[in-house]
Structures are given as C-alpha cells and as structure tokens.
Queue: 4 jobs
Job 1
Amino acid sequence: MKKLINDPRMVVREMLEGLVALHPGLALLAKHDVVLRSDLPAPASRQVAVISGGGAGHEPAHAGYIGAGMLHAAVSGDVFTSPSVDAVLAAIRAAAGPAGALLIVKNYTGDRLNFGLAAEIARAGGIPTEIAVVADDVALRDTVPKERRRGIAGTVLVHKIAGALAELGQPLATVAAAARAAAAATGTMGVALGACTIPAVGVPGFTLGEDEIEFGLGIHGEPGVSRQQIASADAITDRMLEIILGEGGHDAGARVALLVNNLGGTTPMELAVIARRALARLREQGLIVERAWTGTLLSALEMPGFSLSLMAVDDDRLALLDRAAAAPAWPGAGIIPRAPSLAAAGEAEAADETMTSADRLGAAVRTAALACAAALEAAEPRLTELDSKAGDGDLGISMSRAAEAIRASCSADRSDSAASVLALLAGQLRRAIGGSSGPFYAVGLLRAARRLAEGPSTGLADWADAFAAGADAVSELGGAQAGDRTMLDALLPAARALAEAAQYGLPPARAWSLAAEAAKAGAEATAMMKPRLGRASYLGERALGSPDGGAVAVSIWLDAVARR
C-alpha cells in the first residue's frame, strides 16, 4: 500500500487541518474533528444549523460542503467510521442556536446511533434537533426493506436542499420536512472497478479479476450486491439507470436532477463518457433532465468507480438547488443544454493533394496497404505495451486507427497510379492519427508520392528513391537522426537495403524482403539506444531494454509489404 500520509491514526485530523488552512470560511474545533462555518453569528441570531458528517474517506464530503447555502458544520470520524456521540454533540452546540439543528444522517447503523443519541441529548439540553435520514441506495432493493438501505452520494443533493432553506430563514420543521422529502425522492446506484485501501488496514477490501466489476456497492470499501463481467461504459450506465428508474415515479415527462459521482479513482474523461450516456438515456426514456453535475462529490477513498444519483424535482426543489452556495466543494449551478450542441465546421475541409505517376500500380499499392492495415491491427496490443514503457501508450490505438483509415481509403479509391494512392493515404492518415504518428506518416507518404510523380515510377530504383525521400521527410519534420531511437531507426536501414538491392539488380520481391529484414534489425537495435527525442527521452536510461514502438511498427508493416 502506498499512501501520502504521516500516521494513520492522525490522518483525519491532519486532513481537516489542511482543509481549514485552505479556506478562510472554515474553522476547526480544538478538541473534536468538527469543522464549522467561521462566520456564524451569535447563537440568538442563528438560522437553523444544518449539520452532516460520518466517517472520513468520502472527501470532499462532508466538510467540503460547509458554507453559506449548505452546511453549517460537519463531523468526521475515523476513515469509514462513525463519529462519536460527543463529537456530534459538540458540533450541535457549536453551530446551533434557539432555531435548532437538522442532522442529515446517512443510513448506517453507527451513524444513526451516534447522531441519534447526540440529538436526544441536545434536545434535553434545550436545543431543538431533528434528523433526516438518507437511504438512497437502490442496489439493495431486493435485499433489505427500503428504510434500511444505505445512504450514499444522493446525500449531497439533500445537503443542498436543506442548506438553501436554512439560508432563507425557514423554521426547523420546514427544513427537516424538505430534507426528508428530498431524500425519499432520490435514488443512487454505484459500481466499482476495484477496491480501496483503508490507511489503517493496508490492504484492499476485496479483490477483483481483470474483467470483473462490483455492481451495487456502498461507499465504505465493501463488496457490492453482485460481481459481474465488465462491459462498455454505455452498457453499465444503462443497467444502473434501469435499476434506479425501476423504483418508479419517473414516468415520461418527469423532471429530474442527475449526479454523476466519482468514487475516487475515476478520471474526468470516463465521467464525461458516462454523463453523456446517462443524459442521452434519460432523454430517450422521456425524462426532462433539469440539472446535472459530475465530479468527485462523495468518494470512497481511491476506489475506481462511479455512482449515479437521480432526484425528482419540481419548481420549488429546483429553485433550492439553484440558489447560490459558498461551500468549497459544491460544483455550481448544474445548468445543462436541452440537447447536445454540435457546431458546423468553420471552413471547408482541406482537400487532399492530388498527383499521378506514369504507372498502373494503384491496385498493387492498395493491396499492399491493406496487408499493412491487417498487420498493424493485429499488433495493436504489442505496440500499446511497447509505447506504454516509454510513458505514452497511444501507439497501438493510433495504428489501429491507421488501419481503419487505410481500409476506408482503399475501398473508396480506384486511382490507377501509385502516386495518387499514396497521396490519398497521406491525407487519410493525417486526419485519422493523432499525436506525432499522423504527421510523420502523412509527410513520408506525401514526399514519396511526389517523387513517384516526378518521373518514371515502374522500376525498383524509382521506388527506392521514393522510399528514401519519404524517410528524409520524416527526419526533416521531426528533427530526428539515426540512433535517436525513433521510427527512423527502422526506416533508414530499410531505405539503404532497398537502394542497395536496386543497385545490384535484385528482383523486387527479394529487395522488399531485405528491406523488411533491415527494418526489423534496426527496430530491435533501438532496445539498447538511449532516446534523444520524443517523450521517451524523458526516461533516459530507464528506456533501455525494450525496442521503440514506432520503429517496431515500421518493421511490422514493411514485413507485410514484403509478404505481399
């Protein structure tokens, strides 16, 4: 286990100290792990105090939601452990006045016991105190009664509803009733791709296979309701929404708010893919998505996974969600377009350069190109692995996209000459491949096509010249030379072998085989070259031992050409 902490026994306190040090609107109680607003007025002038909390490990919940328009205080226990009665009571006494306090409690036994007893003591001491329990986990619909379900990410929306009403000066009974109604109108479903590790434990809470996910889990590192084989993001999202919507109350025309929550280890890229599908699916079902948020809102340490929360809204509830909140972690208004906006291109797409050569080799070049496509597609896993060792990892998918572009070009193009086919391939690859590979292959093919178009292009010497011209173009564009551990360390030996074969009058089939062998040897030699250009250069000697992925890709497609 690797954690950036000092002492597991002090991690919660130090985390809260850091949070308060970063935000001037927050204060930390000296003797309890309780964070509260630093701008609270004298008790007699206070609004209803909205207080939440629970175990740590759910950051930015709960202290991140303290601020005008949301919580007045948050109580933190140890990681995934309910805070003590005394800590909750200290929060009530520090934040509440005669208007009383509302405790928003996630439906776990420890939280209900400790918050419940603290509320009872507070009432006995003259502080009106109510509790709103959040039990939004629909994954447990077939396992436990509704009132015993867990409280998970939908709690954040309940914070917002209650906090907005308290900020408006509403009485405790009104704030509590609205919070309970909002909790009842919310359903949440979670899924994990892996477990999290509690600092004091040091090992993950469960183990998943490479192709497994935990479906319907809570927020305390526990396993889910079922273990399933991983599917696409769209399929997982659809299944989760099916279960949430299965609760009823979301007929066509219903208005909802959506929360796409990171459980800790999911990238913004993945969350956006999920949000895209969730919005589309809800709209397909005839629902009106009034507001949507995405981000890390209530996590489970570093757990890779996400949850979806759906809250039914009307004008009143929507107005409360829309009210401004000064809490550091509240993600903002959540206003979304009614439909995705796709802008038209600002200008016509640039046309590919066209050229012809004095030959009838277009069909032969297309056949060779298709062989290259098949070879690159089959090599995607290997190229991805090699590129990952250089700190990147996109070469495999780039070459797979190149294969798709080659097929598309060859199926649509019926040009007779080699130069015309190569020029069209240059344009297709330029558009299809991102990163550095696209420009390199495009410039190499385009320069080779120009050489073939300049004069005779039927002899091996002409093709050797064109190949060398293409390699030179790659070198000029990127600035690399032989020995820099790049694709040129395969291209340049192949160009020399082809030129020598032409000089000695070898048959074309033998010449291309020698070029492919030279490219393979050149690619293998890069394993002992220290990179001097590109992202691999940042690794220095740590890159030694594995060949350069770009050079290997060259050797793969040249071998395919030779075999054809």
Job 2
Amino acid sequence: MRFPTATGSEVRQEVSRQLSRIPQARGRFWASVVVLSIGALGSMAVPILLGRVVDVVLAGGADMVTRILWIGAGVSIAAVVSAGLNAVGFYLLSTVAERAIGNLREDMVDTALHLPTHRVEEAGSGDLLSRSTDDVAELSSSISQTLPDVTSAIFVLGATAIALIGLDPYYAVIPLLAGPAYFLSFRQYLKSAPERYANERASMAERARRMLESIHGLETLHAFSREDRAQERIGESSWRVVGNGYRARRTMMVTQVQMTIIEAGMLIAGLVMSYFAVRGGQLTIGQVTGAMMIIIRIRRPMMGIIHTLDTVNSGYASLARIVGVVHNPPARVPDCGAPAPAGRAELRDVWFRYGDDWAVRDINFNLQPGEKVALVGASGAGKSTVAALLAGLRVPDEGLVLIDDTPVTALSDSERVARLALVSQEVHVFSGTLREDLTIAKPNATDAELEQALADVGADWFETLSDGLNTIVGSRGMRLEPVQAQQLALARIHLLDPAIVLMDEATAEAGSAGAGALEDAARVVTSGRSSVVIAHRLDQAAEADLILVMDAGEVVERGTHAELLDLGGRYAQLWTAWSRGRA
C-alpha cells in the first residue's frame, strides 16, 4: 500500500497554496511576465533588422556601408537588451519557484516526520525515501532546467506571432494552420506520457525498497547464503526501471518526429507565401527574408518545449507523488485535557488485524500505577502488536486502549510523551554529539543530569571518552556497540521520565557480550514506573506482577510466576525449556 499520487486538481491546489505563502509572489510573477514579454519582442527585432540588410545591399548607394553599420549596431543593442531583460525576468521567476520548492521540501519532511508509524510501514520505507529524496531532487532539477527554456519558448512564440502579423497579416495563416497540428501532437504526448513517467517513478521506489531491505538484512542474507537471490531481485527491479524509462522516452521520440514534419510544412508554406508576396510587390526581398528567419526561429522554442517535456513530465510525476504525501497531512491531535499522568493503562476487548487476518483477539488487562506486566510467547504470538496498540502506534479495529482513563488516540503528542514511551530492540543513535543525542528526551537538561542518567543505566564506557558529552557519535562519529546504543536509548527514557514504559525486547542484547548490563539498566528505568515488558528472557517475566502468555494473538494464560508454574500449562513448559537451555 503505497502513498497516493495526487490528482491534477490536488497538485494545482498545493501549488497555489505554496505560492500564497511567498511574500510578493504575485507581483514578482507579473513583473517577470512584463519583462520577459518585452525581452521576447526585442529579440524579434534581430531577424527583422537582418532582413533590412538584404534590402540595403540590393538598393546599393554611397551610404550602403554606413546604413549596414547602423543596422548592425541596432542588432547588437536589441540582442543585449533582450538578453538583459530575459535574465531579469528569469531571476524574478526563479526566486518565486525556488522558494516554493523550498517550502514544499520542508512540508514534505515535516509531514513525513509526523506520519503514524503504521502508515510508513504499510507503504514501505522505500516509497517514502524515494519521494523524500529522488522526487524532491527531480522536481528541483526539472524546475531549474526547464523553467528558463519553457518560459522563453512561450514568450518567443507570442512575440513571433505578433511580428509576423506586423509584417503581413497573411503570415498569420502559418501559425494558425500549424497550431492545431502542434496541439494534437502535444495532446497525444500528454495522454500517455504522465502515466508512463509515474510508472517509472514507482518502479524506482520499488528498487529503493528492495535495496534498503537487502542492506538492512545483509547479515541474514549472508547467514542463509541468499546474496545471489537478493541481487537477482534488485536486478529485476532495476530492469523494470529501465523498461519503464524506455517506454516514457519512446513517447517523446515519436512526438519529436511529428514536430519535425510540422516544421517542414511551415517552412514550405512560408516560402510559397513569400514568393507570391514579393512577386505581387506587397513585401520586399529583405522583408520576406526577415519573415522566413522569424519562421525558422519558431523551430528553436518548439523543439525546446519538446525536449523539456521529457523533464517536465518527469518533474510533474515527482510533484504529484510529493503532493500525494503533503496534500492531506495527518491532523495534529490537540490537547484533550487528560488528567495528570498516573501510570494507568487498560486494554478492553481489543481486536486488531493486518489485512484479513486477526493479529490479536479479545485482549483484556489492566495496568495499575507502579505495576509491571510481562508478555511472553513465541514469535508471532502478537506481543509486539499489543505494545504498538498500547503506545498508540496502531488503532484497534474493535475495543478500547485507555491511558489514564483516556483513549490513547485522543491524546496529543505532548500528552502521550508525558505518559508513555516505547523502547524497542532496534534503537537509533543520531549523528551529533552525545549531549545532543541525550537532550532529544529533555532539551533543558544540564550536563550533570545527562551524566547521572548515563551512570544510572550503567554506561560506564562514558567515563573513557576524552571529549565526554562533546563526543561525536552515530554514523559520522564514534560507532557505539549494540549494548552501548541500547544503554543510550534507556538513558533517554530515564531522562524523559514517562509514567509508563513499554519495552519491546529492549534488552535482547543482554544475552551477548553485555550480559546482565541491560537487565540492570532496565530495572532502573522501570523502577517506580508502570511498565509493560515483552520478555524474551523469562527471568524478566518472573519479576512481573502479572504475566500474560500469548499464542496466536490470544492470551491463553495469565497470573504471577508462581501461579503459572503451579498451573503446569504453557508458561510452565516455556520456563522449563528456558531454564534447561540456560543451564
């Protein structure tokens, strides 16, 4: 389920909204129209003056050289003035367009950061990454490359029509006859090209998704010797990009052939009309020379439009994909006036499904302030889904998820952060100083508070850092070991101080080189707080006030550690197997 692609009306609405945010955008636009129009008309003076050179040479006379020099000076002045006006016009247009792109890029990032986690998972991170990077870059590139060419072509064509009519109204017949042919050619192109370019962009997103999956799952691929299969899948998606790209460019090539035929017809018609105009004495040879030079100049803007249509359609496809994300951003939930955080949580008759299959069914439990609830069971039993529902990352299909007697979906971001926090096995270390990474949880924390948080979770490696809190960590600095990264994540939760902590296998690394270190850190973080722990290590479950044993999305047993052992059911079997394996 990818993110939607915006319709034409949605794109127009978003573009209009972006332009309305730019100060004096309307005034700059119309100023650029005036300046570019004058510049285009000035450029028409060049072929007209060059045509007069022919008349001067044919007429001869003692002052022929002087007259030619004056005409040459006029051509130079017209060219310089036209170029200067075009530069000013393009600058005015570019300031509006680039600011609009900048605002759109910011909206794209802002929307992506506020999207619900489940929405990103359903669409695939590759789709969002492609829209945030490839499509934004493609749009920016297409605007910077095509805006001057398309704008120049439009104004040159308008000025050409005016100049031809000024020479002889009969010349207006040529663009009038060519106009419908151009229109049909463009219409045929635009009928098929946008869909083909959209398919190309979609296949690029699929390629990005497969590459991301292969990179993230590299260790698994190595373990099962599936590198060749992963490479084959990436190759298939890459060839799909090539095929869609070829189909998109083939449409442009056919249109270009049609344009060449139309231009040949215009030249033939212009030559025939010029012949009869000179023969009838209506125009001089110099005047028809200027007219034919103007007609020949039509080729340049029209071919410019054709060449840029390729980029324009690619850019429009990218724009539609970007607007598809930002046009209807998720509504920010306002504060609902929830009571002060107390650490109570309840799942009441909760059902949730992925597609047609129920992931969890009829889940009920209460979490009282300061209590610890452990969820145990095999992989795929629904434990992580319960944690996601409790954190508000998923919305139940049936039932209620309450935090402090308030539906979790009704809580605003600030209200939810004050009440609960989710720590998973997969944590992220942001690039920057260690201080910046920690103050994500508490921006106004002092250095003493940050150091104390690290000490509380047992991050004694911090003491060996020569730069202390100024140490650069993350992808561009010191690479933290998995246990260190998890301790950093737990220190952030400790600083955040939520009423409820949800730990989704957050201490899984405790079974490796840092055995026991994360267990101690987890005890510190959950001490004095309500907590829900997805326990992969059953000694964690043994410390809980309530244990829920899950299987196939249902709670099949519940009770304390001692009660479940006496029951002799599923939990007792798991405990026996785990104890035997640990021994």
Job 3
Amino acid sequence: MCTSATVPVRTLASAWITPALPLQSTHLRPHHLCPKRQVTSPRPATVAILEESPRKVISTSLREDSKQSETHVHDLTDPSMVFENFDESPKPQSVSVTGTLPYYLHNHKYYRLGPARFEEPHKDGVMWKATHLFDGISMLSSFYFDVINSSVVFRSRINSDRLLRAIHETPSTEYRNFLISPSEKTFWQQLSTWKPPSFDSETGFPYLNYGVTLEQIPGKGFCARTDGSISQVVDPETLKPLGQFRFSELNPKLSGSGSMAHGMLDDATGEYFNIVWDYYPGKVNYQVFCTNSQGETRIVSTIREPARYMHATTITDKYVIIGFAPVRIDFLKLALSMSLADAIAVPKEEGVKFLLVSRETGEVVNTFQHEYFSFMHFVNAFERDGDVVLDVISAQGLEDMTSFDMDIVKTKGQLPPESSMYRIVMRNVETSTDGRASKSPSRDMKVITVSETAGDMPTISPLFKQKDYRYVYTLAFYENVMAGSVQKIDVTTGEAIRFVKPGHILGEPMFVPSPSSTAEDDGCVLVLALNTITRNSAMIVLDAKEFVEISQAELPVAMPSGLHGYFGQAS
C-alpha cells in the first residue's frame, strides 16, 4: 500500500552520475503540451515521499534555517555491496512480472551500462583493485519486455573483456589503473614504476573501459562509450563487443584523444554531434563535428581553448552548445602522479562560459560568461523567442574527481556531491552582443534555481528534446543514502515527487512515453533496483504521472545499477 507525505526541502541532495540517451523508436510521434510557466525566481522544492513497502521509512522536514536533518531510516543492510563484484549472466533468462506492464513496452529493450567488477587477480596472484569508481570493469545488461507473456528476459556481459583479460595476464608490477588514487603509492614509487597505457597487440587499441554511455552513432551502430575518442561497437542482441573505432575513422581531422561521453543525436534529422580535442598544455583545437544519418561526417567548427576535462554537449534546433568550465588538467601533476583525478585543477576565478555554435555555418554566434558554478550533465536545451534556454545539473565539489576514490565511497556509503538544477537563459542570442566574451558576467545571461534537491542522471521525455518541457526524472539521495530514491521534478514550479523503495539502491530512471500520450508525463519510468537485503535485483516500472510502482520483475541475480542507460525497439 502506498502512503505519501509532503516534505518541504531546502538542502541540496544528489549523486554524481548523468542525460540519458534518447529513445530510438520510430513509431513514436511528437506531441505538444499545454503552455509552460517560466520559472522566475528560486524557490524550495516540495517533495512528496511515496513509500511502496510495508517496511517503514521515517522522514522529517528539514528546518528552514538549517541544512541538517534529523536521523532517517532507509533500512539498508550494506549499501557498499554496490562496489562488490557482479557476475555476468550471458545467457538470456526469463522472469515473470508481477503487476501490469504497459503495452507499449512490448518488443523493446532497456540497456544499462556501468562498473561491475572492482577486484581481479593478476598473473602473479596479486589482487588488482579499482582505486576509483570509474576504473570498475564495466558490464552491459539488457532487459527485453514481453508484454504478451508478462515477462522480462534479461542477460548481462562484461563488455570491457579485453581489459579484464589484460589484468589477468599481466603481473601486478606492470599494470596501472587509468585513475590512480593519490594514496595508492608514494610519489617515488609512482615515478619509478610509471608505464604508458598498455596496448592490445591484437587490435592495436589501448585497453579501455567502455563503461559510461550507450549511443547510436550513424554508420557505426550501437556503441558503448567513455570520455575518449575511441568507441566500442556492441551487438545489441548478444551484448558481445564487435570492435572499436576512433572518431578519426569518421573524419581524419578528428585526431584528438578526448571527446564528450555524452554526444547528442537529433532524432528529427538523424544527425549525431560530438566534439574531439587533445590534452596538452596551452590551447588546443576543439573540433565540433556532425555525422549525418548516412554516416558522412563534417567538421562543423574549430574552436581554440585551453585543454579541459569535459563530459557532455547538447544541441538546439539551430545551435551546438559548448559549456566551458575551468576544469583544467595540471600536466605536471599528471606526468608525476599518473592520476587524472589528482591532476584536475579548477581556477574558479575564470568563471564559466557557454558558446553557441551555428549547426549550419559553424560560426560562434554568441558567447555568454558568468561567475563560476559547476556543471557536468545537461538536462535539455531549446530556443524560445530569440533566447536559448539551457537546463543543467550543478553539484558543488563535482570537479574533485578524487571524491570518487573507492576508499571514500565505500567508507561513506554514498557519492558526493549534493546538487541543484539551474536554468540558464541566454537572451537575444543573435542580436545582443558582438559574440566576444566579457570578463564580467554577461547581462544577457540569467541563471535561475529550479530545484535545490535535483539529484543527477537526468532524463526527460524523448518527445521533448530540444523543446520547451515540464518534467525531468533524476536519481537522488534519500536518508543520506546514495541513489536511495528517484524523483520527478516539475521544472516550472520546482516541485518534486520522490519514489523510495526501502532496502534498495536505485539506478538512473528512464522515461518511456506512451505512443497515445496527450500530456508530457503520459508514460512510464524504468528503474533497475538492487536489493541490499536479499542481494538480488529487480526491474521496476513506475507510472510516470502518479509516480507509483505498477509492475516489477524480480531477478534471481544481483546486477549493477550502472551509470547510464538506453531504451529502444528490439531489432
């Protein structure tokens, strides 16, 4: 039986992890919604906690004058099991569903990708241990919805299998993590044992962990990606890796080593956008590129900026939006410590700036600058009456990648940092300025607080990408527990409804619209939940409008909740 309570919230709350990939289903048609109300001022969110289990969840209001809450109970036995090894299930298995699956899920698949194995033996018997969350060997999972038989067919597979094999076949003295904890070795030990990244002699590619996002890249197919210019092509049926490719294969000018883990596919035109750049001191070329539906790739624009760590880009109908935060790489530290996490430097006095690049001409149409705030994931962007509206997740401390060292996340049982959702309104885009950035915040850029309890890993209805919209679905803290809830936020009011499943760690929510929808939230939300008490997982389906559980498929195994997902029609 579901109960609810309304809790005013004023503190920030989140987990670090990012927008999901779009629904690639050709039978869905775009719909328009009722008029939207613009957010005009910051306001606290109202969160309704929906408890679906008899197990009691205690929740108390946070005081207006304090960021401290009273003690809460989430009834988790061991949330650190998220960072234990998960076994793959490569053969498809069918499980029955309790409740009712929405008819439009039939013959569709939901994929999850993320770290799954954190300890493996080296050739010499010494145990390799992931020292950073993003070094966990990644696993790809799929869930096929059979509505006719009221069942879900699941399977999973380690997709970074060559990296796993490299660990098994390499002595511990000859192997290093991509992200090394500063506390793992002393400076002199690191200096004396430094080795360049290992290359797979069979493929000619470095051993990489493809464990962040899943994207459909025209001409290449279904791909697992990370923050690099090398992608892994995956069989969407068997989940087996089919090979790797560099973006330079799409266009020889795309020779850099870095790229956005989150590229953007325009569902209307079939065009895929991303950015490639290199990491070295000084200014580098950021190559904005577009691959059309036939797989032909052109360089849209080349921009000179200092090398930064960047994670996502987004688009509107007319523009590619590039957000430059001062997340710099200290190359001396990188050379000496071998740790990308430890080499991040953030000169906040530089502020942030957003470039609007014409998708058609490649011209930088305008540049907007503001005092510093962090951002990594974009929620949505759209054009409105000559303005560009961009919604982002902003998490304090997000730039400190050492916060995700395994010794920290396992000890605290949660991921920093807490986060808000900001709406950035860039006014009179093509008429207000001459396009040159100012050293002071632009008068034509306004930053509005939408929610102070935004969570992270935002997804929206794919029918409202690049359009004015109302609802976003995020993963959030609950009772100080990492990924303890998922929530639905109304971006016009800041109000939110939160779903909690006691005893469970939840994954990124994926919204799936109903083909017959008449409102933006007509549809369902898919959530992979890990039961830390019985130590198995379940695929949960929520009604998106009421945000309550309508069906569940309980799995006989535990599966990692993962980082990002993808939903599409089964081939």
Job 4
Amino acid sequence: MKRISIYSVSAMVGLLLSVVGCKSDKDFLTEVPPTFYTVDNAFSTSAQIDQALIAIYSQLRDLWANPAEEGWIFVLRGNGTDMYDVPSIRRGNSFNNYGNINPDHTTFYNAYSTWYQIIAKANLAIHSADLEHISWSSPEEKSYALAQARFFRAFAYLNLGELFGGVPIVTEITTEPKYDFQRTSRMETYQFAIDDLLAAENDLPPTTAEGGRLVRGAAQHMLARAYLAQGTQLAADGDAGAGQAAFNQSVAYADKVINGGTFTLMQSRFGSRQEEAQGNVYWDLFQEDNVNYQDGNTECIWAIQIDYAAYRAEDGRSKLPYSRTYGPVFRDGAPAHLTGTAEDVGGRGIAQMIPTFYTRDKIYEGPWADDLRNSDIVFRRTFIGNVPSSPYYGEPVPWEVMYYGSNDATTNRNNQSLCYPVSCKIATDRYTGLEDGENMSNLFRDDYFIRLSETILLRAEAKQRLGNKAGAADDINLLRKRAQCGYSVTAADVDDQFNLILDERARELVYEESRWNTLLRMGGTIAVDRIRQYAFWPEAQATLTFNYNLWPIPNTVIDTNKDVALAQNEGWQNR
C-alpha cells in the first residue's frame, strides 16, 4: 500500500540553499548571493508545494502520536479530563491541580502556538499555489493541493475555537512583526472553519490510493463537528433558531459520510488476524495492517501513517509509543505478583497518562458490562501472575489484591494508579521489531484521526440537541449493536446533561478522541463538573473552585500583542 512519505520533508531545506563556486578564500568569504528567497520565489514546482503539505501531515502525526512524549500533548490528548489522570509516580505533572494551572501554564501556549504553526504552513501553501510561475499537471492537481491546505487551516481554527473560543483570524503571510491582532468571536472562528471546509469539500476525492491523504469524508465529518459546535454556541448565546439550523446542517453533513456509500462500520472479522479465534471485529480495528481504508477498513476516514521501515531507515518519529506512555506499571504497583515489561503485562509501560476509574470501570457497570469493547481481548483485565513466589503464580491476579494489597491506604491508592486494564489500542500480543532490538514500547500500526464511529456520535448529539432523543438513541445503538451489547439504549436514556453521549464516546473512542475539545465545546459547566466528579486524585475537587468552559488565552500571547488588548476568557482573569 502506498503511504505518505513524510521522512523526506527535510529535502525541502534544499530550496533555500545554493552552491556558489569560488576561486579563493576571499571570494568564498565575500557573500554575493545570486538571489534572495521570499515567499514568492521559494517554491518553483507543484511538487515542492506538495512537500509543504506533507510537512503539515508530518506535524499532525507528531502532534497525535507524540513520539517525543511531550507532557502538553498528553493534555491535548485528554489528560486532566474526566477520562485520564497521572499515576502516583508523576503526580507533579498533574493537570488537575488548579493551584498550578493558570494562563501562564506552558500547555496553553504550546497548544495555541502549534495550531497557529499549522495555519501559517497552510497559508503559505495556499499563497504559493496561486503563484503564476507554478506549473500544475492539471487543474485537479492544483485544486486538491488547495483543498488539503484549506482543510488543515480549518482544522486548526476549529480546534482553536473549541479550546480557546474566538481567536484572531490570520489568512495572509506575515513577513514583519505584528502586535495588533484582534480576537474574533467564537462564532466567527467556527464560521471561518466552516467556510474553508465548504471550499475544500468537493475538491477532495472520495477515496485515495495513498494511505493517509485527505478525502472528502474528512471535510464532511469536520463540517458535522463544526456545525455542531456552532449550534451549541448559538444556543448558549440565546439564538435558538440559528442554533437549530446549525444542528440540522451538522446532521446533514454527518449523513453524507454515514449514508454516502463510501464509509461503513466494520461488522464482521477482517484483516491480517481475522482467522484467530481470540479476536473480534472491534479488536481487528486496531491490529497492524488493518487501520487504513486501503487495507479494507471501510470505517477509516483519515489515519496518520506509521511505517516501521521508515522508522528503521531515518524517521525515528514514525512510531506509536502507546505501550510505553499509556501502559501500566504492574512491576511497581503489584511487584509481588506481576513484574517485567513483556506482552503479559502490556509491554514496557511507564504510565505517563492513566485511565480514571470512570474510564476503566464506571462506564461498564451493571447492564453496560456486556459489550465487546469491555471484553478481555479488547480491554484486558486478566493478568496472570508471573512471580514464582506469588500465590497467584500462573493464575489470574485478582484486582482486589492489586488495588488493596497493602494495609496502608496511601499505598493502595498509589497502586490503583499504577495498575489498570490495558486497551488493545495501546498494546499488542505481537510486537514488531523485537528481532531488531525493539523493547515492547512502541506500536507500528497506523492510527485513526477520524473513524466513522465518531461521525455517528456527532450525529447522535446533533439529533439530541434538535430534540430528537429517539434518533440519538438509534445512532448510539448502531455502535452498540456492532459491539454486541446486551443493552440497547432508548430515548429515556438520553439525558439532558449529555452523560449518555459522553459515556458512549468514552466506550467507543478511548485513546482516540480529543476529550478536551469535546467537553469544552459542550459549554456550560459540563467540563468542570465532570473533572470534579471523576478526577483520580483529590486535588481537582480541592482546587477547581471556579467554573470555565474555555482554556485561557496564554498570557504570553496577550502580552506580546501590545497594540491591541486581547480579552481573557471567563474564569481565568487575574489567575
């Protein structure tokens, strides 16, 4: 299967270099450049513009996979929400102690500036694509390049709007320092993203031969998400009619993806390990060579590309370090019964981010337990004792022993943070690269940016916000039926605080969705209420004494923009 070649991006540096012959040292030291590179002449071919787009794919891959294990990206992926926290050994890195969280926190600046980096790269590609000296093989080639750039810009602004609210809209290349950016409203930020997505939609192909490239369904999915966000904000602003219109648009664009004939939920075993009796269709979704649409996975809309050969050759970031960063540390939490870093304990975990009890247990309590997504092959709860002196050697170690094996309550709580079930999304029983010295830290499969399941959940929420609770239940049951759940939801389960939607997102999209975006986009006190309720450590309940539904504008951004005052978001003033 063809993949995006992102490890060759460094070749772009050659665009800005030239070789000057010399006759003497003096000639060599006398700088006489043949030309000066500007935004208008740095690109000379359409292939170079495509390399600029590939640089964005590369940055988004690193932002999602987090191969450098940057703490702020763990927050972007959900740390500090209702779903994830930190273990005892990393309590100093908590994103739930609001005595340490304020607009100067580096997480906010890193997230804010990274999305603007994406915007700057997209603006450069859009500007360069229209330069007269660029030759395109066809109008379609140029249209596709522009569509990808507009999608990336829209994606960045949608993320900024969900996390920070209204932000400055930048569409031009900035070549001089600028200190007078002005915030737009959250509505205007969402509308800009929508306009870019609408401009890109029809110039993106339904499918591609190359894994990882953007397709039309990705734009339609993001339009469903953007209209849902816009409608929620309109309703919060008191414009119910406009909000309802936006929710209808969200449903319409989700329908295009769900009912368009290109994407469908995988309903039966498929792919590289389908003959193995131990698996199920949900487990198949997360096995090597099974993720891409081009692999026969019809619910993959957009995936980041991970390539082991590239990793070995020169792209050390082409990996998913999920076993390492998300995996438990049984060797510290239950050393008398479980030790080592092999497959039997989920790989070489160091627990940078852990699932809360809400994520690991609460969402599967009572009638919710009967669910493929809660099966041992998908969300492994059975760990066989591997310490010869343990009374559980060769037998399952009970969770009561792992959680409550000490007479000291603090030790037990710490152990509960180090021992937890292992999702098939973060570990495997068949690690690639062991013969080359790999140590069960990394997965080498592709990973989802957009999966059809999330489109269905977006539509369910839009239907609920339109007052169609029965329709929302029907959509949720599409996923529950595929997961062979024993309990099907009804309109009566669709509560006004969106707990059902959020719980189903947690069951279906654990380690996949951007939970902060979801919670903050919903507005009100949904985010802070759930953090207070489900955070693993007590610091959240003790220190989250104010309400907010947006992250703060970083103080560095406010201070640098000296010619125009940028208002701080509600709840964060004077913190």
